[in-house]
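Amino Acid Chain and Its Fold in Token Form
===========================================
Purpose: to set a sequence beside its fold so the mapping can be learned.
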Amino acid sequence: MLALVGFALIAAPVASPPDVPEDRIEYYVEDGWMDNEDQVNLAYANLTEAERAVFDEARQTNENTSSGTTVNASAGDTPESLTPPPDSIRLYNVRYDGEWYLLQVRHLTYEVDFVTQQLPRVGSMAVGVVCLVGAAYRRFAV
């Protein structure tokens, strides 16, 4: 019985990987911006449908809520052209209706947290090893 418990405590962490959220893309639009020469300029009329949808959603979210509200989307559901490399931020000047808007795009990545996700797994495996050693000792002890 002790051996079964030991095997279960070792196998459970191996069979179920840690829960890590998928990468997210965060969009933020600010109006009243200027044509900043250090940033890429985009014209709303030249954007694809997917890029327009992202810009419009972020712009409307910022207009309808308190300033600083962002829009999050899964990295797989966002346009490639507006997806920066992992853990980076890109800034764009977007010309829309005769005004300049700032479009800030952040690529958020998540990693396995040691204390909450790895340490319990290591502890479970260690207790499993102790159970197996205890079972072996009981079986083969004189």
